[in-house]
Backbone:
């Protein structure tokens, strides 16, 4: 440690006063604190801050991803299977559900969810350990700490408050990159075995890790080019043999589960089956290159390029450094290719969260650059800075910065917030001007002040992380208010563990189904009305409703549940025992029904918003219809005319036989009653009542009274 600090003091003199003196003073202070203590402090501080920020997140926000991983984890610990609702479920991950299920599998799900956010904050912050240890093999202690601090400051660590696989993949991917670099620089059997194991761990965490295969091939070529010799390549045969064995075992296991070859990719089979346009793929690769540069402050990539150029010219004498550069360059390129190509077909926006593993590599490159004295030849540096600025300046920021993009790209949150406060703000000037300024400073800043750049970057990343954390908490809180209500596990206590069904009617807020199933273990079946489907891999069955109201499955069997959750627009034969409001959605809340066997629907209403608004067609279907009366009261908002239909046929208005419709002025109300007339056999068929309107109106009464 003392030798490293003395070396850093010597190198810091190159920056000149006052920065050189400041760096030297910091180095002198650091020598008094053990390295392990500083690393522990960084990890602990990051964990505490991320856990504190996540306390305001009351429910999963990103649907269905969070619910998928959470439910897989619960089922893994409670039933021993990676499945959702005990149905057939494609493979997503093994490592991450094992992490989430350790706490979400507790009987007290709400407590487990709260504890999980603390565990995840620690796990994601542990990325600091491989970054620091890798950095110490390349550079002096303070620069390794700087790279570590930057790694922990990126806004992507806000995912630690969400049930997302980024939590585990971030540290695991850095570990795999480090293991690869060690295998390249010292290709012993032990180091290669560690890399194969790290690859296996990464792939079991997230199938995105298959990108390590082309990264390995490219890194081997680059390392040989930097070394100017091929001898070391032959020594890597155990790595290729080990990866081949792992790939064969994985493929055999997946095919043994049944299904076609594309099942090897598990839940990402669609990505392998899709066709990708070259133009679109290149466009999105360029967009993600700009986003990665924006996320990491642009100049760390410039630092990587300058150090790599020196290595290409044969000026890098450290073999670990050459291995690091080979891995960093190949990883950055292949991650951009993988993520950009995938996004061009399946995301259609920035998938920044899939680029998070590239950030620590760029920060380590920055530390190596500063450790080397931050030499910046004017011509070379100018070319590199301009080349780095071009992808950022090419970003269509107006199209990319929107509310729908934020769950995948937390670095955009400050820009979105700015547009919220000032919709007329010229966001292009801010983004492009900032990128141009950073590039210019990297080129023109005097040597004694160049260390200010990473300090400013650290502050900017911390501020962006704070903004991202607040945004996530606000959105999750709003989602709880809209979809979940004050009691998250509102079904389980009411049914005391009895199997309950959820009936989905195609409501726009389909994530409400995922939230309900996530929080309530009693919900074990999801039923859809014909033509409706809950997006995502949720096991679900389409049901039919017969004329007498009986709910049947596709094979004609009666639905077996004695409890059902559905929109308040549906009434069943039984008794409602609980309800929640869902303000801001398309339905008037959810009702939990205790059914009177068999499972039967009584009425189904559609076309009427929760506030009574009818724009075109308000409809009420009565099942098992016999005697009764339909009562309706409507109020006009605009001049309109409306018609009443029964069983699809136009009705003459009572007491006014010449007229087929009613005209209303704004504010005028009309009330009427229509007797039931079953469309078939009484009690075995339906009655349908409709109000068709030419303009906006409100229904203050829209109901059927049985006799």
Residues:
């Amino acid at each position: 440690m003392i030798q490293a600090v003395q070396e850093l003091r010597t190198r810091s003199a190159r920056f000149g006063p006052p920065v050189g003196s400041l760096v030297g003073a910091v180095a002198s202070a650091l020598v008094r604190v053990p390295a392990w203590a500083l690393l522990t402090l960084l990890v602990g501080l990051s964990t505490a801050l991320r856990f504190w920020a996540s306390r305001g997140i009351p429910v999963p926000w990103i649907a269905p991803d969070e619910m998928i991983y959470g439910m897989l984890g619960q089922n893994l610990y409670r039933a021993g299977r990676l499945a959702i609702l005990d149905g057939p479920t494609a493979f997503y991950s093994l490592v991450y559900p094992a992490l989430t299920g350790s706490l979400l599998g507790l009987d007290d799900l709400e407590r487990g969810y709260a504890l999980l956010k603390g565990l995840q904050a620690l796990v994601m912050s542990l990325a600091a350990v491989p970054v620091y240890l890798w950095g110490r093999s390349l550079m002096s202690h303070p620069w390794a700490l700087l790279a570590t601090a930057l790694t922990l400051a990126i806004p992507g660590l806000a995912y630690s408050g969400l049930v997302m696989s980024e939590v585990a993949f971030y540290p695991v991917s850095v570990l795999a990159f480090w293991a690869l670099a060690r295998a390249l620089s010292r290709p012993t059997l032990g180091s290669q075995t560690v890399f194969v194991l790290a690859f296996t761990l990464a792939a079991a965490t997230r199938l995105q890790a298959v990108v390590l295969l082309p990264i390995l091939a490219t890194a081997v070529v680059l390392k040989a080019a930097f070394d100017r010799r091929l001898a070391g390549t032959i020594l890597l045969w155990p790595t290729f043999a080990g990866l081949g064995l792992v790939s064969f075992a994985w493929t055999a296991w997946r095919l043994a589960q049944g299904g076609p070859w594309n099942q090897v990719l598990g839940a990402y089979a669609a990505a392998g089956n899709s066709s990708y346009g070259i133009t679109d793929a290149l466009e999105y690769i360029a967009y993600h290159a700009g986003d990665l540069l924006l996320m990491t402050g642009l100049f760390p990539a410039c630092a990587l390029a300058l150090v790599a150029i020196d290595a290409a010219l044969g000026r890098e004498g450290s073999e670990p450094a050459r291995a690091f550069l080979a891995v960093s360059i190949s990883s950055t390129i292949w991650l951009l290719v993988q993520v950009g190509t995938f996004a061009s077909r399946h995301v259609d926006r920035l998938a920044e969260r899939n680029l998070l593993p590239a950030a620590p590599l760029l920060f380590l490159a920055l530390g190596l650059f500063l450790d080397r004295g931050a030499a910046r030849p004017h011509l070379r540096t100018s070319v590199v800075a301009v080349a780095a600025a071009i992808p950022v300046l090419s970003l269509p920021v107006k199209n990319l910065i929107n509310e729908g993009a934020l769950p995948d790209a937390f670095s955009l949150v400050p820009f979105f917030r700015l547009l919220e406060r000032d919709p007329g703000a010229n966001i292009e000037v801010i983004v492009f001007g900032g990128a141009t300024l950073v590039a210019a400073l990297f080129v023109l800043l005097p040597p004694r002040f160049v260390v200010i750049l990473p300090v400013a970057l650290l502050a900017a990343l911390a501020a962006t992380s704070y903004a991202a954390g607040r945004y996530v908490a606000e959105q999750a809180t709003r989602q709880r208010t809209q979809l979940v209500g004050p009691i998250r596990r509102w079904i389980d206590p009411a049914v005391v563990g009895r199997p309950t069904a959820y009936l989905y009617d195609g409501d726009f807020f389909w994530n409400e189904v995922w939230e309900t199933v996530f929080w309530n273990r009693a919900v074990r079946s999801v039923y859809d009305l014909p033509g409706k489907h809950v997006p995502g891999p949720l096991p679900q069955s389409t049901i039919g409703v017969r004329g007498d109201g009986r709910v049947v499955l596709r094979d004609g069997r009666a639905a077996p549940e004695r409890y059902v959750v559905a929109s308040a627009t549906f009434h069943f034969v039984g008794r409602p025992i609980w309800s929640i409001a869902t303000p801001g959605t398309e339905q008037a809340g959810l009702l939990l029904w205790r059914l009177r066997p068999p499972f039967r629907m009584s009425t189904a209403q559609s076309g009427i918003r929760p506030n009574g608004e009818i724009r075109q067609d308000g409809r009420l279907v009565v099942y098992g219809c016999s005697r009764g009366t339909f009562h309706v009261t409507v109020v006009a908002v605009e001049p309109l005319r409306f018609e009443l239909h029964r069983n699809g046929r136009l009705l003459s208005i009572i007491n006014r036989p010449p007229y087929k419709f009613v005209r209303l002025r704004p504010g005028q109300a009309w009330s009427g009653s229509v007797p039931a007339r079953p469309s078939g056999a009484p009690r075995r068929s339906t009655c349908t009542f409709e109000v068709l309107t030419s303009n906006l109106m409100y229904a203050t009464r829209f109901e059927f009274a049985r006799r």
